[in-house]
């Protein structure tokens, strides 16, 4: 691959005018007066991430997902795992154990008992999940649960001794421009970290109905999926999930699921092994010229129909929270516990109406 270097711009140099030479003996010219030096101010942010890295990296794990080599139902390896020499070396190491590698990813330990958070796409369709810690110890992991709609998964390992673990941070406090550190297992190389800032909030990249990513400029590559993003206090504020790239490698467009979304999903998976989401049974659409979301269709005998919602209603609030887009309403309904009543405020023929809707359980076919 050729690398083209762009030449630096030529700096314009302005010379000071020369001193006039007076007839007769040379006279010493007075030195110009200089303003006192302005003290240098250190730029904001840490001078080193090393203390933070030492604190958090022991709880970041590498995850290898395999299928038995003798299995008649063997899957074809994804291109992200069979391409580069480094990736082939990782695959060959796993083959020595009689396994065929489906993929490699990352995760992090959430408590000392061995609960690990990762991405659903890292561990789905696995016959065997192997977790490696930074100290070289390897564990066989069991799948606790996967939520396909958010691409979040929980797995568990057993250890005779308590394991290092991480704590959650509040992603709602994260601002664009904040320093962050991402950790993971890029290309199966082993534990590594990258640093950058939060580039944007609330990104929808078309991966699912609940897209609400933090966009990061910290380099994230294949194999980083499932790894944590930290704030400067060493708290997990997001789960590394996706990149947008024309080449398959990092171009500074990384996307992580905020902790405010990850935490309740993880707790449900730990408790039940699955997610029960609320269901309304109505098709919603955005209104460009109005603040709210319009009901485009109402399913027959659905919670929406039984609650009195009608086609053409403009929903402005649910459970006291303002709803300005269809996405916000879909998320609010999904987050509501099934078999509970909520108040829905609508505009119908320019008149405000409050309806009581009994939230149903989202059918599995819609997951």
UniProtKB/TrEMBL annotation:
Pfam families: PDZ_2, Trypsin_2. Its EC number is 3.4.21.107. The keyword Hydrolase applies. GO terms for cellular component: periplasmic space. GO terms for biological process: proteolysis. The keyword Protease applies. Keywords: Hydrolase, Periplasm, Protease, Serine protease, Signal, Stress response. Residues 276-331 form the PDZ domain. InterPro entries: PDZ, PDZ_sf, Peptidase_S1_PA, Peptidase_S1C. Residues 1-22 form the signal peptide. It catalyses: Acts on substrates that are at least partially unfolded. The cleavage site P1 residue is normally between a pair of hydrophobic residues, such as Val-|-Val. GO terms for molecular function: serine-type endopeptidase activity. It is found in: Periplasm. Its main location: periplasm. PROSITE patterns: PDZ. Belongs to the peptidase S1C family. This is Probable periplasmic serine endoprotease DegP-like.
């Amino acid at each position: 691959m050729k690398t083209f270097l762009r030449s630096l711009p030529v700096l314009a140099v302005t010379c000071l005018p020369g001193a006039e030479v007076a007839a007769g003996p040379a006279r010493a010219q007075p030195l110009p007066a200089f303003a006192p030096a302005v003290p240098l101010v250190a730029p904001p942010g840490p001078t080193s991430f090393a203390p933070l890295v030492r604190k958090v990296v022991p709880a970041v794990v590498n995850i290898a997902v395999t299928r038995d080599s003798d299995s008649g139902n063997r899957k074809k390896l994804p291109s992200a795992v069979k391409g580069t020499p480094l990736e082939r070396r990782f695959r060959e190491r796993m083959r020595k154990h009689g396994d065929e590698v489906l993929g490699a990813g990352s995760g992090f330990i959430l408590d000392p008992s061995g609960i690990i958070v990762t991405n659903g796409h890292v561990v789905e369709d696995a016959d065997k999940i192997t977790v490696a810690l930074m100290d070289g110890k390897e564990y066989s992991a069991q799948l606790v649960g996967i939520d396909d709609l958010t691409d979040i998964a929980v797995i568990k390992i057993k250890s005779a001794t308590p394991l290092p673990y991480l704590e959650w941070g509040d992603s709602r406090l994260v601002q664009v421009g904040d320093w962050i550190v991402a950790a993971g297992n890029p290309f199966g190389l082993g534990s590594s970290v990258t640093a950058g800032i939060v580039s944007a909030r609330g990104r929808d990249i078309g991966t699912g109905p609940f897209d609400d990513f933090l966009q990061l400029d910290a380099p994230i590559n294949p194999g980083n999926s499932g790894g944590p993003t930290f704030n400067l206090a060493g708290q997990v504020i997001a789960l590394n999930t996706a990149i947008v790239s024309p080449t398959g490698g990092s171009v500074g467009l990384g996307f992580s699921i905020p902790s405010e979304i990850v935490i309740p999903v993880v707790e449900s998976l730990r408790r039940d092994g699955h997610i029960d989401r609320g269901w309304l049974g109505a098709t919603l659409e955005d209104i460009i010229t109005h603040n709210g979301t319009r009901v485009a269709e109402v399913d027959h005998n659905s919670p929406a129909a039984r609650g009195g919602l009608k086609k053409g209603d403009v929903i402005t609030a649910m459970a006291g929270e303002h709803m300005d887009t269809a996405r916000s309403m879909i998320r609010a309904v999904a987050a509501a516990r099934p078999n509970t009543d909520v108040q829905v405020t609508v505009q119908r023929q320019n008149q405000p109406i409050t309806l009581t809707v009994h939230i149903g359980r989202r059918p599995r076919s819609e997951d």
